[in-house]
Design goal:
The protein is α/β, with parallel strands linked by helices and 237 residues long. The protein has 7 helices and 10 strands.
Length: 237
């Protein structure tokens, strides 16, 4: 199985006045097509910086990042925006829905930017909403949806462009425990359908749904283990 994500010796240095802060210190890992990976770590560990790089929201200071066989490290802002829309689906803690827009139109947004016709957008959006269990909620606004339903709309929006990878940043952070379980079961179902998912979370019970857990500390990966194993990968050198 080929890697849809490949990071090689990724470093990210931030300049603050006359000081430098190295947020990532030579991180390397791959994610195979169809994997479900949880990225974990305390605040300041580098996991959020890594997620921003994976999402083409930032560029590495050095190292190589391949996304679906494309070297994105040297792309300009417009190229990165196009890659984000074509190759990535995003799910956020805060849902990031347009409050005054019906659910189906929220789901259609990536297709608007991709230039699809109105008819094609609607067909794809309705199919994505059905895929996440929201058939019949197409015309509801955010105020008419529960938190779990709003996150399902966000997941449908992430799916609608058939991305290479779904990136989920603390997707259960605003949900109660019962709804969190429902959302994680949905992610598990989608992953079983072959969808690649990379999720950032600080919650161990949420991370347990993933087949693989990568843990960051001080800008390095300190463990990289498959579910049910104790294998460690130390990148501290």
């Amino acid at each position: 199985m080929s890697d849809v994500i490949s990071l090689t010796d990724i470093r990210r240095v931030f300049i603050m006045g006359d000081q430098q802060f190295e947020a990532l210190k030579g991180v390397s890992f791959g994610v195979a097509t169809g994997e479900f990976v949880a990225i974990m770590g305390a605040s300041g560990s580098g996991k959020s910086t890594c997620m921003n790089l994976l999402g083409c929201l930032d560029r590495p200071t050095s190292g190589r990042y391949l996304l679906d066989a494309l070297d994105v490290g040297g792309m300009n802002a417009n190229q990165l925006a196009e890659i984000r829309n074509r190759k990535l689906g995003f799910v956020f803690q805060g849902f990031n829905l347009l409050a005054r827009t019906p659910a189906v139109e929220n789901v259609e947004l990536p297709l608007v930017y991709a230039g699809f016709s109105a008819k094609e957008r609607r067909v794809r959006a309705l199919a994505a909403m059905e895929q996440v269990g929201l058939a019949g909620k197409e015309n509801n606004h955010s105020s008419q949806l529960s938190g779990g339903q709003q996150q399902r709309v966000a997941i449908a929006r992430a799916l609608v462009n058939s991305p290479a990878v779904i990136l989920a940043d603390e997707p259960t952070g605003n949900l109660d425990s019962t709804t969190s379980e429902e959302i994680m079961n949905l992610f598990t179902t989608l992953n079983k359908q072959g969808i690649t998912i990379i999720m950032v979370t600080h919650e161990h019970d949420v991370a347990a749904y993933a087949g693989r857990q990568i843990t960051f500390r001080d800008g390095r990966i300190i463990s990289d283990s498959l579910a049910g194993t104790t294998g460690l990968t130390d990148q501290s050198v």
